[in-house]
Amino acid sequence: MTQSSQDNCSSEQDSHKTHAKHNHDRCIATALNDAVLLCEQRGARLTQLRQRVLELVWQTHKPVGAYELLPLLAKEGFNSAPPTVYRALDFLLELGLVHRISSINAFIGCNQPKHEHPNGFFICRQCGNASELPALQLRELAKQLEASLGITIEGETHELTGLCASCSSKAQK
Amino acid sequence: MTQSSQDNCSSEQDSHKTHAKHNHDRCIATALNDAVLLCEQRGARLTQLRQRVLELVWQTHKPVGAYELLPLLAKEGFNSAPPTVYRALDFLLELGLVHRISSINAFIGCNQPKHEHPNGFFICRQCGNASELPALQLRELAKQLEASLGITIEGETHELTGLCASCSSKAQK
DNA sequence: TCACCTTAGGTTATAATGTTGCAATTCTAC
DNA sequence: GTAGAATTGCAACATTATAACCTAAGGTGA
After folding, report:
1. What whole-number distance in Å separates Cα of residue B164 and Cα of residue B19?
2. With contacts defined as CB-CB under 8 Å, which chain A residues touch B153?
3. In terms of CB atoms within 10 Å, which of A13, A29, A31, B26 comes out highest?
4. Nearest CB to A122 within list B137, B149, B159
5. Angle at the Cα of B128 (from A99 to B14), degrees rounded to 5?
6. Confidence label for B20 from pLDDT (cuts 50, 70 and 90)
């Protein structure tokens, strides 16, 4: 359970380094473990289908489209019509196990499902990896905006694009 | 040209007050005027179709879907197939005259097309109005994130939902 | 255990959103 | 006024998401 933060990528501080070599199996295992616990807590059923969809979403750190999942599920003998995958994704979204990135109509695993947090991502245009933005700064922004504009914020999504640290440094070489 | 800031809603400071009674004709006129100037500057052609699409987008402060515009254009004798409206919208997006709000697949007029700025909106779930978020705070956030994560941000979109100031105060009564 | 109820998933069809490719037209610059 | 570029018309199609209805599986209390 204790391990160097280089080994996986589930901790928030590391989320922007997802390009770096890491033990991705551990990412998946952690995500799955979190999911099991969360479902127990909430009395929700993590069925085979739902679990498999979660695993597939977690195969990479790149956002994945719903329709990309269909053939993968089919290959494994699952039914694979759109409603099937959308229902599974809706379930996972509801529990905060995945996020939706609406600017590219794609889904990605959440690495902090245990704690509610604003939905914010940085997507590298080079490598395609997406990483969550630090909740602290997003919350700070929201607080400021609420104070200055008199609004009440209930939901937020932030989607940034550009070059990640790794791709930036490669580009300079 | 000089007028009380209550009269229209084109200034950034007022953008969150778009619910309030205001001279909306002036909003449209200002937007159109900005568009004409910007097109002249850039050597771009603000054709009848493009201008009309811009006006239609500006009819309200609520984001409008591409497919909502089609029948409106048809009514006025314009061709109205999806590519027509999408091409016009793409043109307007390119020039920064409208923004796209991807979480709801909708478009909205930009009130500061003269200055490049981050794409950020607050959308009230009650009245449906959307207003731009202050560029200053968004830029500050971007700067922080670049510094702390080592990323290079090239594009950003922020989409917040909740209750606007007006709807909040009505809710309390 | 059984009957009942609720939840999950299968299946078909369709809605909503967005794009491609090519022909026809209009505009602009020379 | 003609060539080339930009714009629009038009038909087809691609992608993303949902509706409606039914069957199957799991959970619960008598």
Report:
1. 8
2. 122, 160-162
3. A31
4. B149
5. 105
6. low
Please say whether the dihedral angle defined by the alpha carbons of residues B97, B101, B102 and B104, taken in this order, is positive or negative: negative
C1' of C15 to CA of B67 (Å): 12
Cα angle A34, A123, A83 (rounded to 5 degrees) comes to 60
Which tens digit of pLDDT belongs to each residue from B23-33?
999 999 999 99
pLDDT above 80 for A4: no
What are the tens digits of pLDDT across the range B117-167? 999 999 999 999 999 999 999 999 999 999 999 999 999 999 999 999 999
- A-B interface: how many C-beta pairs under 8 angstroms? 111
Q: Which domains, from first to last, does chain B contain?
A: 12-172 (1.10.10.10)
- CA–CA separation, A116 vs A166, rounded Å? 28
Chain centroid, CA B75 distance in Å: 24
Torsion of CA B17, B19, B22, B28, to 10 degrees: 90
At a 7 A CB cut-off, the residues bordering strand C are A 44-45, 47-50, 78-79, 81-84, 87-88, 91; B 45, 65-67, 81-83, 86, 102, 105
